[in-house]
Amino acid sequence: MTILLLGSGGRESALAWKISRSPLCDKLYILPGNGGTDVYGENVPGIKTTDFPTIEKFCDEHAVDMIVVGNEDPLVAGIYDYFDGRRLVVGPSKMGAMLEGSKDFAKAFMSRHNIPTARYRSFTAETLEEGIEFLLTLKAPYVLKADGLAAGKGVLIIDSLEEAQKSLREMIGGMFGNSSATVVIEEFLSGIECSVFVLTDGKQYRILPVAKDYKRIGEGDTGPNTGGMGSISPVVFADEVFMQKVEERIIRPTVEGLAAEGITYRGFIFLGLISVEGEPMVIEYNVRMGDPETESVMLRIDSDLVALMRAAAEGNLGDMPLAISPKAAATVVVVSQGYPGSYPKGLPIELGDIGNAILFHAGTDRDAKGQLVTSGGRVIAVSSTADTIEQALQQNFAAIDAISYEGKNFRRDIGRDLLKLM
Question: Are the C-beta atoms of residues 182 and 122 closer than 8 Å to each other?
Answer without folding.
Answer: yes
